[in-house]
Write a structure and sequence with these properties.
Layout lengths: L18 E5 L16 H4 L2 H9 L3 E5 L15 H10 L4 E5 L5 H8 L5 E5 L6 H5 L2 H8 L4 E4 L10 H4 L7 E3 L1 H15 L5 E5 L8 H8 L4 E4 L1 H10 L14 H13 L3 E3 L3 E5 L8 E4 L8 E5 L1 H13 L2 E5 L12 H11 L5 E5 L1 H7 L10 E2 L4 H9 L3 H7 L6
Parallel strand pairs: 1-2, 1-5, 2-4, 3-4, 5-6, 7-8, 7-13, 8-9, 13-14, 14-15
Antiparallel strand pairs: 10-11, 10-12
Helix pairs in contact: 9-11, 9-15, 12-13
The site of adenosine-5'-diphosphate has 20 residues, from helix 10, strand 12 and helix 14.
Length: 402
């Protein structure tokens, strides 16, 4: 069991001497020369892999990488196989180029306990995204059991995420367990005051999340491009900033919902602007004074101070979305401030997630001061919104046992 979810994990069942198909998410960032720039996603799965190996299981690892159209060689898992080989020097790591071809059958059939097999990018096969039952059955046919340790793809109804439960006893891995436990803890038993910080480019993609978060939050601090639409709704000039024109009603509804739940939504009081996102420096403006030809690209120092005070008092913090155009260091200060403010509050449970949010904080120090950094971007947001995910439901519905 993981909290209220009827999922068996690899701690609940003893898996020994079996061939285990492990769904991992090794969709790691690569340079154009195919060098891995950050192997955090691989590192995070090591406890599960080590535990299974310790009990003499033969592992077949499955993952996707990027969004290939057919067999795109630049998205081969070869660099990942090489990295795994470095991490597991006592084992032989083999990349299986095409598990559906006879050439692979022998390797698969003769796998020893000292070999870890990694199947080539699952998205090279159309059946993965289509959740094709024949493809799913073929994949399941390689092993005795299935372990899902890829929380970050649990919002996808792909064959390797939801298609295995019919054919194989299916279990949750340790990373999956850790993610579900941490996020459920925050959503179900948050300590007051709860402070949500939400940034990012667009409000439309985050509205359902915002609606859900008003139910538990005392404060919602808004920054990033997303805040512009709110400012505009209050008839505040935002110059040439990106705003979403069709969100007026939804934003109003959200503000009513916030009122109902006694949630205070806070907007930036001052902002950093420039003529283009590539400008070398920005200029601080109070609200109502943003020039017509400028774009809002970060929160200003006054806003930092106000947000900082609220973050400092929080007992629970949820942060998703950079509060500025952080890709340009000139507009990364607000996001860095938020990060350090969170790490300087020792009395709170902090949850951070989102693809760009993680990128923005990845190189900072004190990462260990964050209670939970989710590996799931879209998956985390959808899990908060809906309370479950297709990949979680699939594990709950597995009918086979070992
Ligand atoms: P995450 O991936 O963490 O969920 P999002 O994808 O929602 O975050 O948003 C991240 C993007 O939002 C970044 O590319 C960032 O540059 C952009 N962004 C943040 N603030 C602004 C702004 N004021 N103007 C334009 N883009 C912004
Ligand atoms: Mg993003």
């Amino acid at each position: 069991m993981i909290g209220k979810f009827n999922i068996k994990t690899i701690r609940d069942v003893h898996i020994e001497n079996k061939t285990v198909l492990v769904r991992v998410d090794y969709n790691v960032p690569l340079t154009p020369e195919h060098t891995i720039t950050n192997d955090e996603r691989i590192q995070q799965t090591l406890p599960t892999l080590r535990k299974l190996l310790k009990h003499h299981n033969r592992l077949i690892l499955i993952s996707h990488l990027g969004q290939p159209k057919g067999k795109d060689k630049s998205l081969s898992l070869a660099p990942i196989a090489r990295r795994l080989q470095q991490m597991f020097s006592d084992y032989e790591v083999l990349l299986i180029k095409d598990f559906t071809k006879p050439a692979a059958h022998e390797l698969l059939a003769r796998q020893t306990r000292k070999q870890i097999l990694l199947l080539e990018n699952l998205r090279f096969y159309a059946g993965e995204k289509d959740n094709n039952p024949i493809f799913a059955k073929g994949l399941a046919g390689l092993a005795d059991a299935y372990v899902n340790d890829a929380f970050s793809v649990c919002h996808r109804e792909d064959a390797s995420v939801v298609g295995m439960r019919k054919y194989l006893p299916s279990y949750g891995g340790l990373l999956l367990e850790k993610e579900i436990t941490a996020i459920s803890q925050v959503m179900n038993h948050p300590k007051d005051p709860v402070v949500v910080i939400l940034g990012g480019a667009k409000v439309s993609t985050k509205l359902p999340l915002l609606f859900r978060l008003t139910e538990i939050a005392d404060y919602i601090l808004l920054g990033g491009g997303l805040a512009n639409t709110f400012l505009k709704n209050h008839n505040i000039q935002v110059g040439k900033s990106v705003v979403e024109p069709h969100q007026k009603t939804a934003v109003k509804e959200l503000q009513q919902q916030a009122l109902k739940h006694h949630t205070t939504i806070m907007l930036p009081q001052d902002v950093v602007c420039a003529e283009t996102p590539t400008s070398e420096t920005g200029e601080v403006f109070q609200l109502h004074t943003v020039p017509k030809n400028k774009i809002i690209l970060d929160i200003g120092p006054e806003t930092q101070a106000i947000f900082g005070k609220i973050i400092n008092q929080a007992k629970t913090i949820i942060w998703n979305g950079p509060v500025g155009f952080f890709e340009n260091p000139a507009f990364a200060r607000g996001t860095e401030f938020i990060y350090y403010a969170i790490t300087e509050n020792p009395n709170c449970f902090s949850l951070i997630g989102g693809g760009d949010t993680i990128t923005a904080v990845a190189k900072q120090e004190h990462l260990d001061k964050i209670s939970h950094i989710s590996t799931g971007g879209g998956a985390m947001l959808e899990f908060i919104e809906k309370g479950t995910l297709p990949g979680i439901q699939a594990l709950e519905r597995t009918t086979k046992t070992l």
